[in-house]
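Quick start: read one record
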Amino acid sequence: MRESNPQLLDMKSIGALLICFPLLQSFREALGSLAKHNPVLSSDVQLSRSLTLSDELTKVALFFKQVCTVQGKTGSRVLLFPEAWALSQCRTLDVSVPVLQEFPSLVQYIYSPGCVPLRRCSGCCRDELLQCLPSSTRNVSIQLLRIDPAERSREYVVLSFLEHQRCECRPRRQHLRLQQSQKEAKGEAQEEEKEEERKKGSRLTNCIWEAKLLNGFIINL
């Protein structure tokens, strides 16, 4: 029989690995696969020089020995590769987005809250030429308190934000075209809002002048 890897000698048994990670399905599957070809192997078999291990089990055991060592020293949970891989994939996540990041032309106002909760695409793609981008979006309306420091006024307003529903990895050039069309649509919406603000300001100015004229007319009487 060939000798097992010397680095495994301080691991008392395969059972110790299973105790260290009782929910580790990948290790159990590797162990079960090996046991089919080697009936002698079980969770109680000592890892010693007399035990012949397959390359597969040796690699798995070494990996989890390293994880157990790190976890024992730091006391913190180690995020395993399968979980890290799954969490890093292109998908939607709940994030806080600054209001002024979405409406940079409204910097004269202060909004409360300053950030809004939205679902946005995030994650990695398999190729650097690809980017995690939204494939389906929707508009969500959120009520905010808008403060105007210049006028010392405040009012509740409803703003529309873009939220991502589904994501996929797409070439970056496609995203640039999509982003341009979204900017144009957002610019049109902001222009309409500015025009409405101008109309409100104009109506207020007219009311003030009418009040002054009326007041002057009454005084002359």
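Residues 5 and 170 are 44 Å apart (CA to CA).
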